[in-house]
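Many groups now describe folds with learned vocabularies. In that spirit, our science desk offers one protein's residues alongside their backbone shape tokens.
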Amino acid sequence: ADALQLFYKAIELDPEFASAYGMAALCAVMRKANGWMADREQETVETERLALKAVDLGRDDAVALSLGGEALAFVVGNYNSGAAFIDRALGLNPNLATAWLFSGWVRADLGDTETALQHLATAIRMSPVDPFMFDMLNAVAVAHLLAGRFEEASSWAERSLREKPDFLASLRFAAASYAHAGRTEDAQKVVSRILALDPGQRISNLADVVSAVPAHMALLAEGLRKAGLPE
């Protein structure tokens, strides 16, 4: 919340500063992933405004394009537009590790898991001590989960949780991966951790904190249901 107010202040000082809009939109990505949105509908509308402003002002700014694209995909659910803006960012700056990370997420969401894994491997290779390493590893886990490789998904989810043990997004995908792999006891332990951190988490409100096409959401929900997350 404090970061968001500072980005709004940056926008006030320089209304043409594309990356300020992009970073404000990224705050919404983190708010959604952690279940911190107070008014999901209003915040989604505002995120779309910020993201579109970022990509409009930052047509030649890889940072703004990648941030705006990620927010459009994850918060707004506009995966194709998000992917297109991230692709443009990579064309402008193929050395931007976060753009490869965001591309990996969006490609996984679109079902192209092999391309997603290639892009995520590039992100990890380019920035091996990245502060977002936990998210890079989590994205690899998700790509394997969506491809039906549940043991590999579990292994990568464990690596993500070693980087940031209380990251709810990693915990959700770890629990689902364990459950689909038949590791019921491990899955149940992770669900207990999820509920300790977020007592209101349910199968029925997954869409509030996860962005996925219906088939992927169904796979995640099935895994979490097997793991013991309440309906």
Observations:
- The first helix runs from residue 2 to 13.
- The chain is about 75% helix and 0% strand.
